[in-house]
Amino acid sequence: MCRTEQEQEPERAGGDGSLTQDAAFTALLEDSAVDLYENAPCGYLSTLLDGKIAKINSTLLAWLGYTREQVVGRMSFTDLLTVGGRLYHETHYAPLLRMRGEISGIAFDLRAADGSRLPVLVTSAVKTGTDGQPLLIRTSVFDARDRRAYESELLRARKEAEEARREAEEARLRAERERERLQNVLVTLQRSLLPPVLPEIPGLETSAHYHTASPDRLGGDFYDLFSLGDGRWGFFLGDVCGKGPAAAAMTSLTRYSLRAAAIHDPDPVTVLTTLNTVLLERYTGREPRFCTVVFGVLEPEGEGFTLTLASGGHPPALLLRAGGGAEYLPTPGGVLVGVLPHPPFTRTSTVLSPGDTVLMYTDGLTEARVDSGRALFGDGALLDFAARLAPATAKDTITAVTGLLHGFGDGLDDDTATMAFGVPASGAAGKPA
Amino acid sequence: MNVAKRNNVTVTGQRGAPVVMLAHGFGCDQNMWRLVVPALAEHFEVVLFDYVGAGRSDLSAWSEERYASLDGYARDVVEICRELDLRDVTFVGHSVSSMIGVLAAAREPGRFARLVLVTPSPRYIDDGDYRGGFSKADIEELLESLDANYLGWSATMAPLIMGNPDRPELGQELTNSFCATDPDVARVFAHATFLSDNRADLAAVAVPTLILECTQDFIAPREVGAYVHAAIPGSTLVTLDATGHCPQLSAPEATAQAILSFTGAAP
Questions:
Q1: Tens of pLDDT, residues B203-229
Q2: pLDDT in tens, B102-115
Q3: Is residue A242 part of a domain?
Q4: For position A2, what pLDDT does the model report?
Q5: Same-domain check for residues A101 and A122
Q6: A→B interface, C-beta within 8 Å
Q7: Per the database entry, which stretches of residues form a coiled coil (chain A) (predicted)?
Q8: Do B149 and A85 touch (CB under 8 A)?
Q9: Which sign does the torsion angle of CA B121, B125, B127, B131 carry?
Q10: Which residues 62-91 of chain B have a CB within 8 Å of chain A?
């Protein structure tokens, strides 16, 4: 059969070269079906419908370490599987094969004669007779050691990722619950530093609002309004330096010092001086703590009230007059409380007539950032805002200022306390019965 | 809740005739009954369904809590019977579904007239003198096989196939879809199936019961068939000349004939 070539290429004929070429050509023909089957690079087996192995190739026998005599007619395909694999075979593989006539790429572990496990991928097809009746099942088996090792690795990685995700989610939920709990504590603590409601004062409308910048942090702003027992009323509004538990503790001390001092002698300068002494005594050396505060007394007079107040480094109160227009009530020279041994505090006084309202606030309001963070809201803008608002009742003033605070959005990053007192213009609201 | 849609209920056969309800086991879905349905449909109204999590059921109705025990599957059966108002039902359960049928009949005794338990096993794991044939380690191996073979299951295709029985063309996208199950669902069903122990429930079976077993069944060997037969008072045991765990596939005519004879529908 090589003659044609020899004739076409006479110069290469003869010698060893010719023999080598003949062998290579014969090999290329691959004309032995038996050899193709027996020594294929994959395993082959044919089983009867009841699973008995009827034929198996040498490759698969070599992988398993069985002789042909041990297997053919004696073993079933499922005998080669692990117990778990047999369960899978009965519940998935066999039904699918029966219903579809073929099934491909299923992962099994084969058990070799020596007990070792051989991960394989199995594909089966049913051979039918001319009448369509199934005759036997042909199965090819591919060595899948590397592939299965890789897949196990992927599976393991996925399980780890799922586990990590689950743990992270649990941690997140725990943190959220903890944060919620802490916020509840903070809200309770913050509330304890403010009066739950302002007392009702005949002939005077009162209103207050506390704006919390962050639910996670205790603010240091405070206010209160209380009876001095002789028809007069004491009030204060202030801001301790810093935030958090230490600031809250100082706020608490400040509040009770102011109230105790006021019962003893309500003169505003005396009250602030007493508070200064208390703070200096309590916060010494490496732990300087101070606050700004305005303290005052309201005393009924005619149709209105006399307002006397002193300020320790606090932004001035703002008066909204009955006839329109607004003005600050300056308290020049007052310094921070808790810094100097003998601080100067100055007293000032005014009369709230029907239709007049006084507004007090902490510096969160005037130091809110406006104009995309480039500028502070400032005293001038607050005065303009109040002038446009006046005349206004205490409630309307606080409502308007609260709206202003909300309007600052992210520009407001500090807590802000506001409190207003107004003598009703009509003489209807808040009048004694 | 539309139970019929949830469980992909299919009703075929003679309307108004006595009801035969066919319940698939662990692994595939109601297609397992395809070869016996034609013979049964001549005499019965045949009700087929997929358990939630299998076949084309509504996967969104699945929860691990409910389907971690066979009671959850028994509730599926009872809820289908209630919604379709099925009575005097001949319940045919394959493999684990035979025990699910035992539980369902105990829950709602009035609705079930007969039980046909196809290759049943009340407990797969060996226990003292009792030979179920398996150890816990064997079941772990099965779970490994489930993990290694998704059978064409894919998270992207699943929502299309599940709960869309009216669009069968979707299922053809997946080569092996009729046994394709969400691996998490399959794992829970495998645990519920192979770790269950219903031996104590057998004595309470109060309806005529037929047990069908195969001559060679790796999952439910004849020793187990004999146990079930002895435990259910007055039960009938028929050994089919078939191999494997699924006689409705390997010997459909004989399986259908046994059911017909038992119900008196055929000699």
A1: 999 999 999 999 989 899 999 999 999
A2: 999 999 999 999 99
A3: yes
A4: 38
A5: yes
A6: 49-51, 78, 82-88, 90-92, 94-96, 98-100, 103-104, 106-108, 148, 151, 155
A7: 147-192
A8: no
A9: positive
A10: none
